[in-house]
Amino acid sequence: MAQRTNRMFTLASRPKGMPQESDFKLVEAPVPEPADGQCVVKALYVSVDPYMRGRISEAKSYAAPVEIGGVMVGGVVGEVVESKNPRFAVGDIVQGEFGWQEYALTDGRGVRKIDPTIAPISTAIGVLGMPGLTAYFGLLDIGQPKEGETVVVSGAAGAVGSIVGQIAKIKGCRAVGIAGTDEKCKYLVDELGFDAAFNYKTTDNNVEKLKELCPQGIDVYFDNVGGEITDAVIPLLNVKARMSICGQISQYNLQKQETGPRWLWALIVKQARAEGFLVFQFADKFQQGAVEMAGWIKDGKLKFREDIVEGFENLPKAFIGMLQGDNTGKRLVKV
Ligand code: NAP
Ligand code: FER
What we know:
The protein is 24% helix and 25% strand. It is of the alpha/beta class. The protein folds into two domains: 5-126 and 305-334, Medium-chain alcohol dehydrogenases, catalytic domain (Quinone Oxidoreductase, Chain A, domain 1); 130-280, Rossmann fold, CATH 3.40.50. The strands form three sheets. Strands 3, 4, 5, 6, 7, 14 and 15 form a seven-stranded mixed sheet that branches. A six-stranded parallel sheet has the order 10-9-8-11-12-13, with helices on both faces. A two-stranded antiparallel sheet has the order 1-2. Helix 9 links the parallel strand 14 (306-310) and strand 15. The model has no long low-confidence stretch (mean pLDDT 97). 3-(4-hydroxy-3-methoxyphenyl)-2-propenoic acid is lined by residues 50-51, 54, 61-62, 247, 278-279.
């Protein structure tokens, strides 16, 4: 077979503040022949996620940073195009952490087969993959919403947030979203069934707005963004409220750390709990979560939108745009 050429994005420089396209470099290299036990996967959809901002900075984290010159990390849904691994056949659709490259050579570890009859294959890196499972376990296990309670979610129109609000509705809660455009807020209420949503960019007083939209106070806060938006939630927490701390995207591109109000006192008087989590801590329950969500999708109780950017070469643009709020629903790149 004629040798295939791989295209990949490597990290050219560590971004200062908001990443720039020039922080990434498109390079080409031949795709190696698979050895026994290996297969070659051709990428069909590549994910761009907020956590990648952390992985391209120097700061110590749950995983080692991407090296300068190293291939960008990321979840991929692809097709097996060559296989010397008995677990995988040519034509299988798989999901793995193959990074921002068109072809990946893998020994199959950490790679899972995707059943294309359950849902569109792209959902393996979306609603039925990492972001959807983050919403599911972050809300249900950490937030523990009870029927009749009020759930507020920030970053509400994104991959995680849009699912959080809908699961809150499935559990009989009042769901209130916070997002960055009027169109996103309209989508949350009109199409996803949130009870209310507001645009934090055009609201002068987030505390007053939350008071208006949460007349019974806030029982569960699912935090995707941190910063001033989270500060505004604190005064409205009910007794025994739970805060599920999922992400702090408002802080990821800051060059100087922000300080804010010292609100731990509020947790004492409200006997409230703030708990951070990493989706991977629920790995042994992923299957169960994905099966339940697939059922909700089938029953029309859970909707999802994918914000698909076409073209492998547009990965850096798609990633930076997501960090800036261009996306509604799960942003991914179709190769
Ligand atoms: P996403 O919400 O689809 O995309 C990011 C969104 O963040 C943008 O669309 C933008 O929407 C919003 N945003 C950007 N800058 C902001 C700012 N300064 N203030 C408020 N909002 C801002 O991304 P996602 O994949 O669903 O991830 C959402 C959050 O969950 C992120 O914080 C991520 O790190 C976190 N996460 C955590 C885990 C975990 O294991 N703990 C796993 C997955 C994701 P607007 O238009 O509304 O500004
Ligand atoms: C994310 C934000 C942060 C995420 C993981 C982390 C999987 C972990 C950060 C760390 O360990 O430093 O969106 O998604």
